[in-house]
Design brief:
three-stranded mixed β-sheet
Length: 72
């Protein structure tokens, strides 16, 4: 399976946010990762984002359920 994605390091206004993912209109994804995290934490955040993509979490609109499964 080939997944088209872009990754950007950003400064989120909420320091609790480590990553965010958006599905783009062309079927690709954009992953935003908190730039102040150490390299290891950035990799963990990236892996978390990819898990959401691979598990098609964008079809489920309840973010509490998505996050509960992602952290299980």
């Amino acid at each position: 399976m080939m997944i088209d994605y872009q990754v950007y390091l950003v400064n989120f206004p909420n320091t609790k946010t480590k990553e965010a993912v958006t599905e783009n209109s062309d079927g690709s994804y954009t992953i935003f990762i908190e730039s102040s995290l150490c390299r290891e934490a950035q990799q963990k955040a990236f892996n978390h984002a990819m898990k959401h993509i691979l598990e098609n979490d964008f079809l489920n609109y309840d973010t509490k359920i998505i996050e509960a499964f992602a952290h299980a």
